[in-house]
Design brief:
The protein has 444 residues and is α/β, with parallel strands linked by helices. It has 15 helices and 19 strands. The protein binds flavin-adenine dinucleotide.
Amino acid sequence: MKKDITIVGAGLVGSLCSLYMTSRGHNVRIFEKRKDLRSEIISAGKSINLALSERGLTALKKVGVHEEVMKIAIPMYRRIMHDEKGILSEQEYGNPGQAIYSVSRAELNALMMELAEKKGAKLEFNQLCKDVDFDKSSVTFENTITNKDKTIDADIVIGADGALSEVRNKMVENLKHEFKLHKIGHSYKELLIPSGENGTHLINKNALHIWPRGEFMLIALANLDGSFTCTLFAPTTGDNSFENLNTKEEVETYFNQVYPDFTPLVPNLFEQWEENPTSSLGIVRTYPWHVKDNAILVGDSAHATVPFYGQGMNAGFEDCRVMDELMDKHGEDLKSCFAEYSQERKPNGDGVQDLSMQNYVVMRDKTADPKFLLQKKIEQKFANSYPEKWIPLYSMVSFTNISYSDAWEIGMKQEKMMEEIMKTPNIEKEWESDEIMRKMCSLV
Ligand SMILES: Cc1cc2nc3c(=O)[nH]c(=O)nc-3n(C[C@H](O)[C@H](O)[C@H](O)COP(=O)(O)OP(=O)(O)OC[C@H]3O[C@@H](n4cnc5c(N)ncnc54)[C@H](O)[C@@H]3O)c2cc1C
């Protein structure tokens, strides 16, 4: 039966969710607190970019918009690590040809809204969600220009309003849903490497660049216009932290010493440093993700995570695909459908958060460790010889749709086995031998 659906938030996940719901024949209205960002996109170079991988692509494919999105995506086949002397090393992400994709957040969001509208969703901007009545599935919005409130009745409310979700807040306040916010001790700041002459990229565009430095790191992803969006992740306070980087001299000395091959690429480094905000990072855990047959949460509102696996948006897109499958399974019985959604997705929300926290250590620290890089080579060799026995953790997360919770569990077991393998005497010389492959076979 055709339902009236209110989606709160026209971000990446809310827009995709509307595509799924209009495809099922429902009436969808999306309410967004900001103004229409499509009126403002001028330079892709100024926008943050995101890594899109298999789960996100699967969800886009299922609703038929994957080809549109690929037009604005740049494949990244490998990590390129920059050491303290500016010397580069590389690590393939997977098998030849496997890539994750750099996309501009603003361009992707604008495209998703465009597609949502084309498929029949009605979008309203400057509408701030203030209250939700879960019994009536009604939401009260304040128009941020006129300050006037209006209440919208529907059959279903979908909270796609991000990490600070008001829909979730109301579930927590009024229905006593579980809620935990864990802020980590690191923050981030974005910086831009401008394009070279004629829009050329100054460093390899088909790689994700990392300057791993132990407790902190810098990363860079390419934009279509030749620029790179870079993100510095560092402790908020203490040694090598944002707290100690204030004056021009402090900032320039830090970058010259720690990222010597980065500094010449960014002529206006200090201006950017002052202009761009420093933002905090955290994890949101809540449960359940639904209210009877009246409401659900999707995306960051349910499981905001730290960005170190590049999976937040991908996980949110996966929520939409899974919800669609559950709607097929349960038909008119939305109560059971939403209950199963909460039950099935919550361990995956936890899983993506555990994976993201673990990958922070991998990216900032281990990618600079020759032993770790050797371990990954051994895993890749074994995976190529015995694909039915081993998929490396990074590949499970980024190149398959294996659930995050399973990937996390399998990955922890693999890590234990690899600890054994890495204890082999002379492993640096022996790693390609049949003996190592036999030993791996005996452990799995
Ligand atoms: C630095 C950084 C890098 C990241 N990199 C990656 C990456 O490489 N790959 C990846 O997959 N993910 C990445 N992520 C995570 C990704 O950005 C999020 O998971 C994704 O944006 C979540 O989408 P969403 O639609 O759920 O929430 P959002 O994108 O936050 O959208 C929520 C929308 O709701 C609106 N809204 C909020 N409150 C209200 C309200 N009260 N009323 C009405 N509207 C409201 C907001 O204005 C917004 O438009 C990164 C995150 C960060 C911080």
